[in-house]
Automatic annotation (TrEMBL):
UniProt keyword list: NAD, Nucleotide-binding, Oxidoreductase
Residues reported in the UniProt entry to bind NAD(+): T209, N240
Keyword Oxidoreductase in record: yes
GO biological process: L-glutamate catabolic process
Coiled coil spans: none
Active site: K125
InterPro entries: Aminoacid_DH-like_N_sf, Glu/Leu/Phe/Val/Trp_DH, Glu/Leu/Phe/Val/Trp_DH_C, Glu/Leu/Phe/Val/Trp_DH_dimer, Glu/Leu/Phe/Val_DH_AS, Glu_DH, NAD(P)-bd_dom_sf, NAD_bind_Glu_DH
Residues bound to substrate: K89, K113, S368
Family per record: Belongs to the Glu/Leu/Phe/Val dehydrogenases family.
Name under which the protein is recorded: Glutamate dehydrogenase
Pfam families per the UniProt record, alphabetical: ELFV_dehydrog (PF00208), ELFV_dehydrog_N (PF02812)
CDD domains membership: NAD_bind_1_Glu_DH
Domain Glutamate/phenylalanine/leucine/valine/L-tryptophan dehydrogenase C-terminal positions: 202-432
Amino acid sequence: MSVYEQSALATKHALPSYLNADEIGPWGTYLQQVDRVTPYLGSLARWVETLKRPKRILVVDVPIEMDDGTIAHFEGYRVQHNLSRGPGKGGVRFHQDVTLSEVMALSAWMSIKNAAVNVPYGGAKGGIRVDPRKLSKGELERLTRRYTSEIGLLIGPTKDISAPDVNTNAQIMSWMMDTYSMNTGATATGVVTGKPIDLGGSLGRVEATGRGVFTVGVEAAKLIGLPVQGARVAVQGFGNVGGTAGRLFVEAGAQLVAVQDHTGSIYNPLGMDAAALQEHVREHGGVKGFPGAEAIDTDAFWSVDCDILIPAALEGQINKDNAERIKARMVIEGANGPTTPEADDILHDKGVLVLPDVIANAGGVTVSYFEWVQDFSSFFWSEDEINARLVRIMQEAFAAVWQVAQDNKVSLRTATFIVACKRILHAREARGLYP
């Protein structure tokens, strides 16, 4: 039995009773990552079960009246994985495939991510199983407000702070903030981040995750001797994260050769105009039909000749079925959990450097932290100031992770988990158990 199979079996046995043991899902992936880091935790390993059990899980029914007068019910979640280092922090996603296993894993990765960049948050995540494209704006607002009310007992500016994620945006955050404020009787801008600027949002927040992806990518490229000038970049997902990262790499002299999203896959070996592609996506809802490239098969995207691959869509996109065909020297995870543990091993054996999500896409939560701080002080910073602070934090966090990886001869993912898990468990140990 391989190490991967042994880890998967142990993970299956460790699943909580409320999950189907035959469908390990994203939570199982996270548990395998914790198992891999446990040997490096020293005396803190006695607390490791803390990382394997979410502190709090809330599953709610979200009933709303539809435009035609019928009543529809949707299932919603809010999971607080760990609060040892501060209030919960994590986005809310609206997607038809949202599951409890997924939200649990995303909340745990938020714990790791926040600790890796050393912002004073714990990890949390939320979601509703719904296809928002099938709802009118009025139905979407009623869904958001009802969900916010249902999870209201858990959230708050010093308890648990939400943010945009898949299919949610500044408008959704505005409705959440207003609903919470109305229910508590006072305006509470700090209950969410990713808000419009007029409601206490932060400059630089929209591009923060993509800018963080670009920042750690440039730092890693220097260390492995990969010149960004002329590097060929492929991006999966061309929204705020992938679009921003792709544009910044092009502005730094790289070539954007391939892009894939839910509408299709496009390719141009001579490079694409990233800014023009972003505008095309805004106008047409996706990359399909972009005149500066040719369409290719979805599966062919993973075989494109490139130096840097940025998966910035959903989890589990790089797996055992396509990892062997990836030709990039470096993978920068813009999405949460885009690479399965088995694919991680394949890429490692191929000599591909993987910059894990828990450090690579932490730019978003870093600027969310800036927004939260600004809301508390009612004093707001310039965009240049925010970007400079973001770049500094990301560079310092990546440097620390790189050093741990070199010292322990482990992957950057395991190194990030070592840094983050030690910080979380140090806090757990220092606080002790109450009562």
